[in-house]
Amino acid sequence: MKQIKWALIAACVSLSGLGIAQAGFLVSEKEIRRQARVEWLSMKRHLPLEPDARVQRYVECVANRLIAELPPEQSTAVDWEVVVFDDDSINASANPDGKIAVLNGLLRVADTPDSLAAVIGHEIAHATQEHVMERAKRGARTDMLVLLGSAATGIQADMIRDGATIGLSLPYAREQETEADLVGLQYMAKAGFDPRAAMYLWKNMGAANQGAPPEILSSHPSDDTRLDNIVKAITPALVQYNAAREAGKRPNCQPR
């Protein structure tokens, strides 16, 4: 299986408009979305796709159940698409145009439909809460991976562009990550996925992410912080989950 640095994936999904923003120029939302479409098509054309159609269908199944729970202006008005790429890295990302990239290495830790729903719900939340767009408009001087808010792995120290970046943008990014965790938890619960799987997922992520940098050098909350936030939100999420199950929402997405 081909190994592709997730930084390259992020650069493909990232917008050339963001580079302009970093240079100090204003970039319109229209231009950012145009560049997102161009880069997404390029990504699908040039990066290796998951060779097993069953895996692609499985990930689409989970994503579609989550998207169905969004309000109409976010579910049907957005051209959502999820593509699984053949890469051992543990990551996923969504661009501001509703395109979700999942690396098949992620399935080693998100190894149940419920835990996969936690990741994809997180990424959908980044799109629906317009985190990427907000960061692009502000011209935040951060690595593209931080701008895209990829799930779960955080940023290695050598990916940070300069010391000033840490003070100016990473705290803001961590707030976005926390919001995406909690909004994604609601999405998965409403769709009938067990929100307790989010705790299982992030524990798996922590085990797979040994040697990660301190929290100050990551756009993501530390594993302990993330788990604490989810634990605090789990009770209302379980209420939503139980209501969804009683309403007949029982996703049947099979990995194979």
Give a verbal description of the structure.
By secondary structure, the chain is mainly alpha-helical. It has one domain. It is 57% helix and 5% strand. Strand 2 (92-94) and strand 3 (99-103) form a beta hairpin. Helix 6 crosses helix 9 (163-190) and helix 6 crosses helix 10 (197-208).
Indicate the topology.
Layout: H1 6-13, H2 16-22, H3 29-46, H4 53-67, H5 72-75, E1 81-85, E2 92-94, E3 99-103, H6 113-128, H7 131-138, H8 144-148, H9 163-190, H10 197-208, H11 223-246
Parallel strand pairs: 1-3
Antiparallel strand pairs: 2-3
Helix pairs in contact: 4-6, 6-9, 6-10, 9-11, 10-11
Fill in the keyword field for this structure.
256 residues; mainly alpha; three-stranded mixed beta sheet
The radius of gyration is 17 Å
Number of domains: 1
Q: What is the helix content?
A: 55-70%
Mean pLDDT: 77
pLDDT < 50 stretches: 4-8, 10-25, 140-172, 213-217
Number of DSSP helical runs: 11
Summarize the structure.
By secondary structure, this protein is mainly alpha-helical. The chain has one domain.
